[in-house]
Amino acid sequence: MAEHPAHATHAVNPLDPSELFGHVEDSTELHVPRVLTSDGSGHLKIPQPFRTQEPVFKVQTKSDLVNRTIQPMELKFTKFMMIELVAAILLCVFFIGLAKAIRGGALAHGRFRNLLEAMLLYFRDNVARPCIGGHDADRFVPFLWTMFFFTLACNLFGMIPWMGSPTGSLAVTGALAFITFLVVIGSGMKKLGAVGFWKAQVPHLDLAQPLKFILSLMIFVIEVLGLLIKHSVLAVRLLANMMAGHVVLAVFLAFIAASATSLVWWVVTPASVLGATALSALELFVAFLQAYIITFLSALFIGMAVHPH
Q1: What H or E segment, with its residue span, contains residue 43?
Q2: Mean pLDDT of 114-121
Q3: Can you tell me whether residue 6 is helix, strand or coil?
Q4: Which of 81, 17, 23, 21 is nearest to 47 (CA)?
Q5: In terms of Cα–Cα distance, which of 249, 241, 234 is closest to 296?
Q6: Contact (Cβ atoms closer than 8 angstroms) between residue 86 and residue 94
Q7: Cβ contacts of residue 206 below 8 Å, gap of 6+?
Q8: Helix, strand, or coil here: 44?
Q9: Nearest to 231 by CA among 284, 294, 172, 171
């Protein structure tokens, strides 16, 4: 996503779209309370030990939206990358500790570890096995666990003020969807064979040979496009839900700043705070829901690949 501009170039109007979207886009700076910065800007620059002087790769099109979405490859370390790294480390700490605690069939102790174990068993028994079925399901359970908890962790970081949700970036949701796509294709080809998997995309047609060939070719093209579209929607669905909620929250809070110089502020502020609080509760629910949906759909797509038609 587009890099947030420097503080000096911020739009004066807090309701300006560039200002609103700047708070939910990726950046090489951290937004923090002004009192925590020496210059009072409220921006902390993230160290860039690997950033190159010239872009390694750069896309130039006539569309400003495309140019803002596909940024030059400069090996920069961004806020979302930092959050993803922290999320991965936390997951390793939690689940390696849980694995050691229950090694050899021991029972997990403590409410938090019991909660984690209950969630793991839920996804194995109520998502992986029903969607994938047979003896194949348990092989994909670790992947589905990782997909759910990593997505959830990234979503929940967006609930922390001055942080951000990496799943509000197409680069992140696209990568998650692409990984699922590779698992789906790879698992299907492993189960049915490289040729068998692609042949299985077309059902048996009891038709005359010329008509069968034409319809089979059309169905094959439609099925392949369907595979690409399904996984693209997987990325866009998560992106849209996470970004939309954060933008609406930014709008509620921007109303306070926009009315700061008028008497309307005394009416707008309580209403905005109450609205932001209610929306934050909804966003917390959405964080869990969207992590569940991407995991469930991933399991469903894997099941369709290993057990076609």
Answers
A1: strand 43-45
A2: 92
A3: coil
A4: 81
A5: 234
A6: no
A7: none
A8: strand
A9: 294
What one-letter code names the amino acid at 45?
A: K
Residues 167-212: pLDDT tens digits? 988 889 999 999 999 999 999 999 888 888 888 888 877 778 888 8
Distance CA 278, CA 244 (A): 15
Whole-structure pTM value: 0.83
User: Hey, which residues does 44 pair with through a beta bridge?
Assistant: 30
111: number of Cβ within 10 Å: 8
Q: How many CA atoms lie within 13 A of 251 on its CB side?
A: 9
The answer to whether 261 touches 206, Cβ cutoff 8 Å, is no
Helix (H, G, I), strand (E, B), or coil: what is residue 73? strand
Q: How many CA atoms lie within 13 A of 309 on its CB side?
A: 12
Domain ranges of the chain: 7-27+78-306
Best CA proximity match to 19, nearest among 39, 2, 40, 44: 2
